[in-house]
Write a structure and sequence with these properties.
- The protein is mainly alpha-helical and 103 residues long.
- It folds into two domains: 35 residues, no CATH class; 60 residues, no CATH class.
- Helices cover 58% and strands 0% of the residues.
- The chain has six helices and no strands.
- Helix 3 packs across helix 4.
- The chain is elongated and about 60 Å long.
């Protein structure tokens, strides 16, 4: 069986292999490897997708989660608040410029 993601020797990747690879890449980029781990990269991935407006269901799929529950619990601070959509809709209904003007 040929692996898509393998060690340099063609073996199966484990967590330690991934961490070593990430450290090597981060160091080559001129960054501090202690500041960047696979978890931080995954969190950034979720944050960027959420900030771009991607649906939580799609983010959960990309993270390999069976549903949205784990995604919502683990990444709750990175996910755009749902209320933002409501606030944007209300701004559209009432007009943001009307709220800013003095009476």
């Amino acid at each position: 069986m040929r692996l898509v993601f393998a060690t340099r020797n063609g073996g199966k990747l484990d967590a330690a292999n991934v961490r070593r690879s990430v450290r090597r890449i981060v160091k080559a980029a001129g960054l501090n490897p202690k500041d960047w781990t696979p978890r931080e990269l995954r969190t950034s991935f979720v944050s960027l997708l959420s900030a771009s407006g991607m649906r939580i269901e799609d983010i959960a799929d990309l993270c390999g989660h069976a549903g949205t529950r784990v995604t919502e619990e683990v990444y709750r601070k990175q996910l755009r608040p749902i209320i933002l959509g409501g606030a944007t809709a209300m701004d559209g209904i009432f007009g943001q410029s009307d709220m800013d003007s003095e009476p």
